[in-house]
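Retro notes (design track)

What went well: tokenization of the new backbones is finally stable.
What didn't: we kept losing track of which sequence belonged to which structure.
Fix going forward: every design gets posted as structure first, then sequence, in one message. First example under the new rule, 328 residues:
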């Protein structure tokens, strides 16, 4: 379980806006703050387009920040440049859903896994090769995968290679963006177990991003629920089913944990669509879909407040008895 030491990563008031071709701005991430603790797995969940991948990209410097700041081990990494970005990526690695698409199809798996070690000049070719074998063994792949090409592997095997490559540089933080979403349920379980084992062995901290609340809950210690670029709730995952307070989280739970749910049902059962992030209206972003919406919700944005120890929610009606059996 998570130990509350100094956070390894601190995100403060992070906002990311994209310029659109029509001159408008799209607010993908809106004033988001959170911490990641050593050895913690922090889940981020929310519907498509709510800003999850943008957070991942900003944390790994694939996108710049519009405002706010990011601190890694008390060092401000918000505006790193050139070589500093490269060095920082050693410590904060990312695994994507389609990680294998970034593999060079003409490169053998052994080379794909050892390449980061060679690029950072941490080892010579022979040493990197034997390290690649060890890394493959760690993710449950035998030595004979060294000589295979990406197209000769299954989806689950490719994702294991992506994990081996990501941990090759001994990162402290691994950001998994839908890293298991494309896999069959049984393979997904194996890869998640592998990630959890590696976390224990190597003391990694994870940000685990997904749209499947059940999967994210299984691996995470704490869960951030996002809606329209903002955090609407932060809750310990073992309290999720009993203590979730925000109407959006409750609606997600109702859809995900319903008795009729098929495995891996995606979020999307909640009626209506989220509003456009390029036309942010005053008031609560969820008001157009929330049956508990009151006048105040249309005028004032609810702030994220601590409603119980380590439990945060952004809703004008939290605290009211009626919110307990909200149906959306
Ligand atoms: N480069 C970009 N330019 C303009 N808009 C962008 C860009 N990248 C992302 N967006 C927009 O920002 C919003 C957040 O996108 P993001 O990819 O972070 O969502 P997500 O939560 O990861 O969604 P999904 O679950 O579908 O992966 C979306 O409205 C998206 O269209
Ligand atoms: S602030 Fe209002 S509209 Fe938003 S979630 Fe709470 S009750 Fe619903
Ligand atoms: Mg995404």
């Amino acid at each position: 379980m998570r130990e509350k030491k100094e956070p390894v990563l601190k995100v403060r008031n992070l906002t990311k806006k994209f310029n659109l071709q029509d001159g408008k701005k799209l607010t993908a991430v809106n004033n988001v703050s959170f911490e990641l603790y050593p050895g913690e797995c922090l889940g981020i969940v929310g519907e498509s387009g709510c800003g999850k991948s943008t957070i991942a990209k900003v944390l790994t410097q694939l996108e710049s920040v519009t405002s706010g700041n990011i601190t890694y081990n008390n060092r401000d990494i918000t505006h790193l440049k050139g070589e500093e970005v490269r060095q920082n990526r050693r410590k904060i690695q990312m695994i994507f859903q389609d990680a294998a698409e970034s593999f060079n199809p003409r490169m053998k798996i052994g080379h794909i896994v050892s390449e980061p070690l060679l690029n950072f000049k941490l080892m010579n070719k022979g040493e990197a090769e034997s390290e690649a074998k060890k890394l493959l063994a760690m993710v449950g792949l035998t030595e004979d995968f060294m000589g295979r090409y990406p197209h000769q592997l299954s989806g689950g095997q490719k994702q294991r290679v992506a994990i081996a490559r990501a941990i090759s540089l001994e990162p402290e933080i691994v950001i998994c963006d839908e890293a298991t979403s494309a896999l069959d349920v049984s393979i997904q379980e194996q890869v998640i177990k592998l990630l959890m084992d590696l976390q224990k062995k190597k003391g990694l901290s994870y940000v685990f991003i997904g749209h499947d609340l059940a999967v994210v809950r299984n691996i995470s210690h704490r869960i951030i629920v996002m809606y329209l670029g903002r955090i609407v709730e932060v809750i310990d995952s073992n309290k999720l089913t009993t203590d979730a307070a925000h109407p959006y989280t409750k609606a997600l739970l109702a859809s995900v944990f319903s008795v009729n749910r098929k495995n891996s049902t995606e979020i999307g059962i909640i009626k209506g669509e989220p509003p456009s992030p390029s036309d942010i209206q005053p008031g609560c972003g969820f008001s157009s879909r929330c049956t508990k919406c009151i006048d105040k919700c249309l005028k004032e944005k609810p702030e994220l407040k601590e409603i119980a120890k380590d439990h945060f929610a952004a809703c004008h009606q939290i605290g009211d008895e009626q919110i307990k059996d909200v149906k959306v």
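Added context from the reviewer: Confidence is low (pLDDT under 50) at residues 259-268.
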